[in-house]
Automatic annotation (TrEMBL):
It comes from Alkalispirochaeta americana. Keywords: Membrane, Transmembrane, Transmembrane helix. It holds the Pfam family Sulf_transp. This is Uncharacterized protein. InterPro entries: Sulf_transp_TsuA/YedE. The chain crosses the membrane at residues 38-57, 69-88, 108-128, 149-169.
Length: 174
């Protein structure tokens, strides 16, 4: 049944991505050039709604989770690779799959690149685990734990900050 929830959530997320036009190459490129913040607004909204939902479910005892170990080395290397790939192909991994679903077959090459990247990652994982993950390792810690506050304080700050950022974008026509 858990897989069904994931499938339904994924379908709705895909619909929202499509409705926000986040699957369009032009939107992706304009976001990279800081000319259109539609994708940034979509991502921040997703983070806020997801944070509220996950923490409400955890506080209600429906689910339990704990943060994964934080490794700055992994975050930096992964972020650079992810960002470079997104900038080069004009799609992030999720939106490339969605674009394929819309019939944009030019994303076959980026998708094949993602699969190849996943294979290379799997093959190099022992080296990554040995040399990259220990760099800047903080163990399992969340932002609220790091700040010493309740998670709802961080979520409230994120929500309010997003609201003001959205207003800023709208005033600038972004």
């Amino acid at each position: 049944m858990i897989l069904v929830y994931g499938l339904v959530t994924g379908i709705f997320f895909g619909i929202f991505l499509q409705q926000a036009q986040a699957l369009r190459f032009e939107r992706q490129v304009e976001a990279m050039l800081l000319k259109d913040m539609t994708i940034v607004k979509f991502m921040l909204t997703t983070i806020v709604v997801g944070s509220i939902g996950i923490h409400a479910l955890q506080d209600g005892g429906v689910i339990s989770f704990s943060p994964r170990a934080l490794s700055l080395g992994s975050q930096i290397v992964g972020g650079l690779l992810f960002g470079a790939g997104w900038a080069i192909i004009g799609y992030c991994p999720g939106t490339s799959i969605g674009a394929l679903g819309e019939g944009r077959f030019h994303v076959i090459w980026p998708i094949l690149g993602m699969l190849l990247g996943g294979l290379v990652f799997a093959l190099l994982y022992p080296l990554i685990q040995t040399y990259i993950q220990p760099l800047g390792s903080f163990g399992s810690i969340s932002l609220p734990q790091l700040l010493g506050v309740n998670h709802w304080v961080v979520i409230a700050a994120l929500t309010v900050g997003s609201f003001f950022l959205f207003r800023f974008f709208e005033r600038r026509g972004l």
